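In the previous chapter we treated chains in isolation. Here, by contrast, the input contains two separate entities that must be folded as one system, with a combined length of 449 residues.
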Amino acid sequence: FTAGNPKWKKNNLTYRILNYTPKMRQADVDEAIQKALSIWSNVTPLTFRRVEDKDADIVISFAYRDHRDNSPFDGPNGQLAHAFQPGEGIGGDVHLDEEEAWTKYERGYNLFIVVAHELGHSLGLSHSSDPGALMYPAYSYTDPNEFLLPQDDIDGIQAIYGQSNTAVQPTGPVTPQACDPNLTFDAITSLRGEIIFFKGRYMLRKHPSRTETELNFISLFWSNLPSGIQAAYENVERDEVLVFKESKYWVIRGYDIAPGYPKPIHHLGFPKTVKRVNAAYSDETTGKTYFFVADRYWRYDENKKSMDHGYPRKIVSNFGKIGRVDAAFQKDGYVYFFHGTTQFQFDPRTKRIVRQMKSISWFNC
Amino acid sequence: FPLAPETEDEGKNLQLVETYLQNFYNLERDKKPHLRNRGENVFAAKLKEMQEFFGLHVTGKPDLHTLEMMKKPRCGVPDIGQYV
């Protein structure tokens, strides 16, 4: 919250777009601002009405360097924008640095994301230390089509203006905490010696020689990948990671996504009845990759580039009582299966489960 | 002699840290040209505050992770204190 808890004394606010950037079509600027306003009106009783040619509660403008508010902009990058807390005059106003590369995509700086953040200030919020919050001070890109206002921001704004008038209260994504005992994973893969744990739009990254776990947005490394990855595995020989979501898969090489992807998973030999893959791991020594779907698994030969005959088989027939698999990866000859908050260490040589741990055992909690 | 690159980088980094803390953590802007007179602990205390806010290792020193965070594009509103 902003010191002094400033807030608008009314719920029906007005806004005005004072000028436009030449870098975007005006219609795209209008759309980005409308969408930014709607993420706050969707979770509060607040409404926003656009006005022209007269003063408004929130005036949005693009400004250049010193624009006479005692807070000059600093040119490209650095400070992207700022906004003022609720109040008369400049109160509530949003200033956007004209020298930034404003876009409606992931290139440059996405106008929707930045305006949505600044409007948080216009409504009385200050910065959040939750790295997943919209009100976190550092810019990070999220696909506007996938954007959901995080729970941290919903809690903040509702503490000021109350809940929305809708019957069902909206909720938002929560930022994963590495040492949360209830943490489960969407997918896990090794990646050049590290372990990547996918969760929603996040990835938790664990380097074997570092104690702490790094939390990033998936989009930080691969902006074209969707959130909610469902399966992933590393083909160490080809230095590739394959990630799966619904009936599509992508091939990642370093920071790049191989051209021509995503492709349908059926290109790998799955029957049309298979709609998604739950988990996968690849056995570097045998060149065989195991795909887990519901209670069955397929085996794919990386050298022949085709599914082996005689599959699918029941998971329990080869891996024992590990139940359905959320995520899996192989390390140092062992396979680690994750089911909810439980993790099984499996020895493929003896075909035995040798240990059972908590899902967060890799994070030195 | 031209400065050795490391010291030059250090100078630049120190300037980055000082400006960042002035912009976003209320580090006093005073006219003295040299940091040493400000007293290390004020500077280190502000740096710790920033490191704590971002969940970084709280060292009071401009380490690599801290500098990386300071170089990220961001909002111009301070992280603490008033913005009026």
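Strands of chain B lie at 74-75. The interface with chain A takes residues 23-24, 53-55, 69, 72-77, 79, 81-84 of chain B (CB under 8 Å). Compare these points with the single-chain example from earlier in the chapter.
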